[in-house]
Amino acid sequence: MPSAERSPFDNHSADAGGGRATVPSRRQRRTWRWLLLGSAVVVLLLLTFAPQIVGWSLLRHELPRRRMPGFKGNIRVGSASLSWWGPTILLDVEFDAPDGKPFYRVAKITEVPGAWGSVFHREGPIETRLEKPIVTLVLRPDGSNVEDALKPVLDHPIKSRRKKTVVTQGGSLDATDSVSGRVANWQDISLTATEDPQGAIPNRLQLSAKLADSPVAKPLEIEFTWSSSRGEPAGSLGTWDASIQTTDLPLTALGPVLGRFASDLDLSGTVSTKVHLASDGDLTIKDNLPVTGDWQLTTEKLQIACPSRMGDEKLVLDKTEFAGKFLRGATACRVDRFKLTTDVCQVEGSGSIPLMNSIAGAEGPAQSTFTLQGDVDLVALARLLPRTLNMREGTNLTEGRISFEAGSSRTEQGLVWKGSVETSRIAATVAGEPVAWDQPLKFKFALHQEQNRTQIDSVDLLSDLIHVTGRSQGDALHLDARCDLERVISRLGQFINTDKQELRGKLSLAADVTRDAEGMFVIDSRGDAENVLIRRLVTRTIERRAGDLQQETPGDAPPPEPFPPGAGRPPRPGRGAGAQPAPFPDRPLTRREKMAERKAEKQAKREQRREERELRKQANEIVLVPVQEWQTLWSEPHLVLTGKSRIHQDPLSVELVQAGVESDGLRVHAEGSISEIFGRCSIELNGEVDYDLGRLIERVREAVGPHLQIVGKDSRRFSIKGPLRTPTAPAATRPIVPLELSANGGLGWQRGDLFGVVAGPGSIDLTLAKGIVSMKPLDMAVSGGRLKLAPRFVLTGRPALVEVPAGVVIDRVVLTDEMCNSWLMYIAPIVAQATRSEGRISLSLNETRLSLADLAGGDLSGRLLVEGHVLPGPLFEEISRFISGIIAGIDAGPLRDLLAVDQPLVEISRQEIEFELHERRIYHSAMEFAARGVLIRTRGSVGLDQSLDLVATIVLSDELLSRLRILSKLQGRPLEIPIQGTLHKPRLARGAVGGLVEQLGQSVLDSIFGPPGP
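Given the sequence above, the corresponding structure tokens read:
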């Protein structure tokens, strides 16, 4: 049987059962060889072009991250060119900060060597070239976007022994202060930085940058070199040398950086700088502080502005020079030159200063001396900053300087320090009158170093106002001080403006400074304040008769017009009411002429009486006038302060062993500690306070007003913990209290009365946390109802705010006369000066935020639910007089009380009144009340100065309208009248009632208001 045809690709093999091996054909072997060769070529091509493939792929965005381990932001690379032996080139690279916005852009990055050197030659040098980099720096009080982005990188340092070189060309930096908006733009930035961890060559950084839009200024130049060696401690730079040089650099370049210290601090002018600092790389010193240095700074036309401290004034200094040179040794620092010269002060110093951390070590030079002296020209300073120094208006300071000196010397006793501050005679002319202060201030001190301890020998402060003395007896120092506050204010008031403040009282202090067994200073002190009175001049508005004000007009003031506006004018001859008859010829008068003459005389008398009534009305007009009066903020018969503390020197802190305050009605005892005194000043205090609220309230009665009455004695614990200062935060955004400060306390009472709301026993618990003082919700029985309060005081910014959540504050409280005449009259003016009140009210507030500095200047809204009866005051009397005038005008009779001889009770039906405080006025919706069948409705506003801007709507009963036919056309129509004046003296506004003419007729209005002038 013929065999089947074989495929050319079939193997030449025998039957499997025959056990013959498979032998590939020649064609198969050739195919396999080509496949293997092709695969090798593909692999070779992939390896050859792998870097470029990475550059084409999305992996190129991760290439910069290999040089910045830890960087967490997004990186974008426009394009990349990579090869094994050529340089690595990245184009259009962007780095994002944590806020998602780019902070660094660079047009081109070139790195040599390329991929081969980076992968297989890890110890070879690397050179990176950056072309046209752009840095966008946004500064905040607590950091910047660049710091946020680079912090993870700095936390992951690169451990490499490679020599690295970075070269930057054509760079720019845009710095912006996020708070003040100040901007500085640096251009033409060139940077060359070389680092060799092996120490074969010095590390060097050279930077040059030019401030944009400053053609006169030369570029900023910085050069910094440092050594690298394996024997240096961690964190040490070894031997280093730094220099900075500027010429006529505008100080506006520092604007964005100043926001880190004070957001409103602003500098202008130019500065020229030449600074050189160096360290010798002593391996025993880990602080990297410079050992030698010299500097010279010169400013021209320096202007310093800080609105939060200086208002709208600026400190302008024509030229300022600051220069110095020093050399630091193991035990002392020698200052060869130290000099500061400005338009208002001069300071010079030289000599050797012992280092505090070396006093216990080697002895210093045999003659270690240092002197520092200077003076301040008060005349020049007062001319530059008169308002900041609060100089009295019209004051011209002609004489005055402050001089000071301090020095040290080494004697047999040890190191001795002496110093003094002295103010020369101060003279000025105030409003052309000469004033002088012959002995303002003289302060001296002396101390010495003995057995590694500082001993105070003497302290003296001499003045005709303040006297402080201190003398040492062995290890003990006794200090005495006394001061008369009234004399201080009186003396200072000759030169500075103290017209709105008044201080009285005598202060004394006694302190003993000793050392305990551990060598720490122990201060035991007692301070006494006797008959202290603190008052301020405030302005308030009062009501006065216009006639009384005219009588008080000085004699040289022009007399009032005989015919004030609106009071009428003399009749013109020949026409009009009261006109005088034309002259008659010399002949007997006819009967007609005599009648005309008598008629004219009667008309003239009526006009004169009308003018007299108008003048009396104007004289009786109540007007609001501002008056100034003294308000007592605090009155203290005798206050005693006691304290015992220990001073810890390393680190500097104060242990408050005992602190106390005692006065009539108040006793405070506390203990704790104070640390970081010159920084955050952190405090931890725990104590107990015993108080008598009734006595304390009476001492500040004029400040809190007559409507607060509290009786209660109690003892409460309190605690305070946290920093008292936030020195790094700018003034504009600095919270009133640091957010880390926490405190808690409270007070209780047995009985209270606020604006007529009477409360029984209760307490308030307060907690301060994160800048917010919170009060535990208060819900207590008061005056037959409930009082509910839960305010928060927000101290996280300026001004301080009080927040009140939405809800019911007063619930079904009994209505009282005091309540009506204190605060309720602003919402419901009909109850002003009410003499008999019956009913209940409820008050609800919407969510409210008010400034504590000006509660009346904020916005507030809510609802008042009221019902009851009141015996009303002036507002109802004015409305009643108006209605009575209508009746009198109709029947031509005298004014009579329409509603009865005795004043009726006003019935206020249950109703809800919406109100709103805005721009110091309280606006209220319509409020209805009735008296003997007459329905009256008021709406409008009442100012916090008690001024009125109301509209009263009067609805006359059908019975009254039926008796007065002339008013029949008012059937079903309300009568609206505007009311102005004040709560104590309301008046109908004549100029706004023109529409009543159409309703009532001119004759009726003339009866109410008087006839108008011609």
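Residues 873-1009 form one domain. Try to locate this feature in the token string yourself.
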